[in-house]
Design a protein that fits this description.
CATH superfamily of chain B: Aromatic compound dioxygenase
Helix content of chain B: under 10%
Number of domains of chain B: 1
Bound molecules: fe (iii) ion
Number of helices of chain A: 4
CATH topology of chain A: Protocatechuate 3,4-Dioxygenase, subunit A
Strand order of the largest sheet of chain A: 4-3-8-9-10-11-1-5
CATH topology of chain B: Protocatechuate 3,4-Dioxygenase, subunit A
Strand content of chain B: 15-25%
CATH architecture of chain A: Sandwich
Structural class of chain B: mainly beta
Number of domains of chain A: 1
Radius of gyration of chain A: 18 Å
CATH superfamily of chain A: Aromatic compound dioxygenase
Helix content of chain A: under 10%
Oligomer: heterodimer
Distance between the termini of chain A: 33 Å
CATH architecture of chain B: Sandwich
Shape of chain A: globular
Structural class of chain A: mainly beta
CATH class of chain B: Mainly Beta
Order of helices and strands of chain B: EHEEEEEEEEHEEE
Strand content of chain A: 25-35%
Radius of gyration of chain B: 19 Å
CATH class of chain A: Mainly Beta
Distance between the termini of chain B: 6 Å
Chain lengths: ~210, ~240
């Protein structure tokens, strides 16, 4: 006999299902119910740093785009600072750092506008390369998938990044790199997420 | 500084695995490689917070938030309420809880839902609220109907409400579904059965709560939500956690 550990157990996850958009992005799903929706503006108007767009597809094991995904992003500002509710003045006014998007129901394309984050502190005095934390849910995904988007033009920072270096298979690290391109004078990073298959994206247990 | 510590490891055997062939859609959407385990950094232990000013008065009242003036949706009126706690039994205050659901006939207001049950003109099917300082939340709504779905030919989803919660860090982000006490469809559902243990499945059942019901108005169901707990790091070189 031993004493009982009085911890509660985390509520088990369930799939977000095909209609996640109604609940979490009703405007995009086609009906107006809230005066103000959440998560459509990550950086706000005042944030310093390079304005970028991030775009991609989520691709399933058959090679088809997944068209009912919801993605959430969490990132630091261009100085590498996460929004801290205890110290709201540390980041620019209106910078939220968090966003959510849904895929286009016909094409599966998703995208959001933001500023490129700076390097952020890692564990034990290390430095993490600029990255955006992503969380992916959809019908058929039983528990949200965590991954990170790194930038392919940050070669030196990426080489020293403690998290990328945890990925033992160097070829798989490439699945975390977004490709920098330019379109109509705008910087666009392409980041496709492969749920399965040869180029399966690295997902993390955080 | 209870919101600075790292998190208890998530028990992946308690949650559904990614690959659950009886829930067919998971087959092509489940990663096959092992997840890479990360020790928490700032990126995981921080997360978004939300202010009251983003909310409308009726955002947590699905009986009113889409109804025409003087009308209300059809169905059994219920209160869904409970607390958001963490694994340390501490309430999680001021955190965003969002829900979505089918109407009383089992139909979603979504262009991809073609079930033959009718749309209810007075029911939108989504709501949101912040927990109060004690981690408490409530919604008013109608009890959703069961609906058929394409998996096996004759699979029906039990009545359920989808629930999304944030906590204080990106590592706590969670989406789940709440079921209702006494529903015989729960034990037959391939999505419910993605959860490995009976104890885990039972933890998603909202209990009929007569004490919180409103006589001559609404029944009540209680649904507590538990998010990952933070570690005390008293025995490490950084004094964080509680
Ligand atoms: Fe559903």
């Amino acid at each position: 006999m031993v004493q009982k550990l009085d911890y509660l157990r985390e509520t088990p996850s369930q799939t977000a299902g095909p209609y996640v958009h109604i609940g979490l992005a009703p405007g995009a799903a086609g009906f107006d119910i809230y005066d103000q929706e959440m998560g459509w503006d990550i950086a706000g108007p005042n944030a310093k740093g390079e304005r970028i767009r991030v775009e991609g597809l989520v691709i399933d094991g058959t090679g088809s785009p997944v068209k009912d995904v919801m993605l959430e992003a969490w990132q630091a500002d261009s100085q590498g600072r996460y929004v801290d509710p205890k110290n709201p003045d540390a980041t620019e006014e209106g910078f939220c750092g968090w966003g959510r998007v849904i895929t286009n129901f016909e094409t599966g394309e998703w995208g959001f506008d933001t500023v490129k984050p700076g390097s952020v502190p890692g564990r034990n005095g290390s430095t993490q390369a600029p990255h955006i934390n992503l969380w992916v849910v959809a019908r058929g995904i039983n528990i949200g998938l965590n991954t990170r988007l790194y930038f392919d033009d940050e070669t030196a920072a990426n080489a020293d990044d403690p998290v990328l270096n945890v990925v033992e298979w160097e070829n798989r690290r490439a699945t975390l790199l977004a490709k920098r391109t330019e379109r109509d004078g705008k910087i666009v990073y392409r980041f496709d997420i492969n749920l399965q298959g040869e180029n399966e994206t690295v997902f993390f247990d955080i | 500084m209870t919101d600075q510590g790292e998190f208890f490891q998530r028990d992946r055997e308690w949650h559904p695995p990614a690959f659950t062939p009886d829930y067919k859609t998971s087959v092509a959407r489940s990663p096959r490689n092992a997840l890479i385990s990360l020790e928490n950094t700032q990126s995981e232990i921080t997360g978004p917070t939300f202010g009251h000013n983003a909310f409308g008065t009726h955002d947590n009242d699905l009986l009113l938030n889409y109804a025409q003036a003087g009308e209300s949706p059809i169905g059994e009126r219920i209160i869904l309420h409970g607390r958001v706690l963490d694994e340390n039994c501490r309430p999680v205050p001021n955190t965003l809880v969002e829900i979505w659901q089918a109407n009383a006939g089992g139909r979603y207001r979504h262009k991809k839902d073609t079930y033959l049950a009718p749309i209810d003109p007075n029911f939108g099917g989504c709501g949101r609220t912040l927990t109060d300082e004690n981690g408490y939340y409530f919604f008013r709504t109608v009890k959703p109907g069961a609906y058929p779905w394409r998996n096996l030919v004759n699979n029906w989803r039990p009545a359920h409400i989808h629930v999304s919660v944030f906590g204080t860090a990106f590592a706590q982000r969670l989406i789940t579904q709440c079921y209702f006490e006494g529903d015989p469809l729960v034990d037959k559902c391939p999505i419910v059965k993605t959860i490995p243990s009976q104890e885990g499945r039972d933890s998603l059942g909202a209990a009929l709560d007569m004490n919180a019901s409103v006589p001559l108005d609404s029944l009540a169901y209680k649904f507590d939500i538990v998010l990952r707990g933070r570690r005390s790091t008293l025995f490490e070189n950084r004094m964080e956690g509680n």
